[in-house]
Amino acid sequence: MSRRHPLLRRAALGLGLLAFLGGPTPGAVGSCDEDLDGFVDLREYCKEREELVCVRRWLRKELTDEARDDCRREALSLCERRVWRPDCRPTERQARACLNALRAKGTVKTPEDELETCNREALCTVRESQDSNDSDAGSGP
User: What does the pLDDT look like over 14-57, one tens digit per residue?
Assistant: First the structure.
């Protein structure tokens, strides 16, 4: 029985290691069924983006606490009524890239319209199924 005990311990350790290494990687949890190439919900994207812009302006000391809160309320209201051009259909992936750039502390001092992932060309791209005449991006984000 003394030979069997170390063997069982090794097997248990091996199974534990396999379970630990075989789990999902950080950041991958919940991403299996997500469709990042589908179109984003523009109203929800607009709300989140504009609220982030208000907070960024507050962090740059452009707005007071009260003005930041007013800015966020106004952004929510404006996004409810916002109209997007038909040729501006960002994907979930493009929208997330923009929102992540807006959330990043390292980009706070960069004006929002200068963030590469948030500019009109990045979000309102012409897709192969559209005419080449549509390359003029609209009044999107």
Answer: 555 445 455 444 444 445 556 677 888 888 988 999 999 999 99
Q: Note the pLDDT of residue 124.
A: 75
Helical segments of the chain, H only? 4-21, 42-59, 65-81, 92-103, 120-123
* Domain chopping of the chain, boundaries: 41-124
Contacts of 71 (CB under 8 A, 6+ apart): 54, 57, 58, 63
Distance of alpha carbon 64 from the chain centroid: 26
- Residue 138: its pLDDT value, please? 39
Report the alpha-carbon distance of residue 58 to residue 45 in Å, rounded.
20
Enter the tokens of residue 139: 């009044």
Residue 39 is given by DSSP the state B
Residues ≥6 apart with Cβ < 8 Å to 66? none
Kindly give, in sequence order, each residue whose CB lies less than 8 Å from that of residue 100, ignoring residues fewer than 6 positions away.
Answer: 117
SS3 91: strand
pLDDT of residue 80: 86
